Amino acid sequence: MLILKLLRVKQWVKNSFVLIPLVFSLGFLELVSIEQAVAAFFAFCFASSFIYIINDIADRKADALHPKKRTRPLASGRISVWTAVLVAAICLAVTGGLLALIAEPKVALVIGIYVLMNIAYSKWLKHIPLVDVFCIAFGFVLRVYAGAYAIGVPVSSYLFMVTLFLSLFLAFGKRKAELAKQDRGTRKALDGYAIGTVEKYLVILAGAVIISYALYTLDANTIARFGNRLIYSVVFVMLGMFQYQAQLDKSGDFDDPTDNLYKDKILVAICATYAAYIMLIAAGVI
Predict the structure, then answer these.
(1) pLDDT digits (tens, 9 = 90+) for 233-259
(2) What is the DSSP letter of 181?
(3) What is the spatial distance between Cα 158 and Cα 213, in angstroms, rounded to a whole number?
(4) Lowest-pLDDT range, 73-77, 79-83, 159-163, 239-243?
(5) Which of 59, 162, 192, 214 is most buried, by the most CB atoms less than 10 A from its CB?
(6) CA 240, CA 232: separation in Å to the nearest integer?
(7) Among positive and negative, which fits the CA dihedral 244, 165, 275, 257?
């Protein structure tokens, strides 16, 4: 259990962005595409766990003073540094093994960029306002491109915009929650944000997500795959954005997008219904 917490397996849900190209290209109807996409997904999972462990080793003393982070295996002393180093090395080895199974070498390049960017983020970039948030967003964009390269499909310009705007929305939502809790002492970059300004960013980004997704559903290539029925899924995207924003405004403890997804049953239901709708279209049922 401690090893799973060290790996932060719960955070692996973020890597589901790797599977987005598989879904929207209808690649999940082909076994080879599924195998390549799943290998890319788990390669990203173990690469991200490697980053988490390296960060936890570097920040263990500061984390020990944080009200939430002090319960982490390294910060609490329940796992030694040497054990963590061994687990990190295993994660790196597993990532390499999975990448060897993927036919497209660009996936390895994307994950390499992701790892290097996150090391730079941990050391320097997370302390720079706006740069910190855009680094987080770029990490999600890289996930989508890794998934696309793995199955040999291009990334739509609209899909790029949806991913960028949505990840920025989630990242700024995290900053808003931290500001609301007066958590400035644990994150230097927060000194460069004002909660009113962040709220304006959130409104802009929520609209940008909905509009760019709507444009994606109306794109000629999208219609060629899904017909004109995908446009109706905009309703689920709007519901999801509005529900998340409502919980962000209402709750003072809504600063982790992954935990928020697990906790909010309405949000889970919206996501599940959206996924079911996509599958029904792909199966030709509707």
Answers:
(1) 999 999 999 999 988 888 656 667 777
(2) T
(3) 7
(4) 73-77
(5) 162
(6) 14
(7) negative
Q: Enter the pTM of the model.
A: 0.90
* Beta carbons of 163 and 144 less than 8 angstroms apart: yes
User: What's the rounded Cα separation, in Å, for the pair 281 and 286?
Assistant: 5
Report d(CA 276, CA 3) in Å as an integer. 33
pLDDT tens-digit series, residues 204-235 = 999 999 999 999 999 999 998 888 899 999 99
| Residue 209 amino acid letter | V
Give yes or no for a contact between 181 and 235, defined as CB atoms under 8 angstroms apart: no
DSSP 205-265: HHHHHHHHHHHHHHSHHHHHHHTT-GGGGHHHHHHHHHHHHHHHHH-SS---HHHHHHH-H
Look up residue 194 and give its DSSP letter: -
